[in-house]
Design a protein that fits this description.
By secondary structure, the protein is of the alpha+beta class. The protein is built from two helices and three strands. The protein starts with 9 loop residues before the first strand and ends with a helix.
Amino acid sequence: MSKFKGTKGKWYVLGDKYPSIQSRNTDPTIVQTHPSIAAVNSTFIPEQEYTANAKLIASAPEMLELLIELLEEDNLCKSDVFRIESIIKKAIL
């Protein structure tokens, strides 16, 4: 299975009114230490909704990592393995 090719490091939400997803990149070869990954806002949905969306996006790398770890478990049924593999493929391909 391929590896995640997105921004490395922990992602977090910066800002309240117009949140953006930032990364605390730990790679010393990258000059920009807090690259912007995405801006999440809209005049068409409530502020509470786009803030929740930003938090979900910022959690995505940790969720992906957990799904990859779960595949190593022996007690998963085939349907769970299939669902997890499908989600991982969607995220990294």
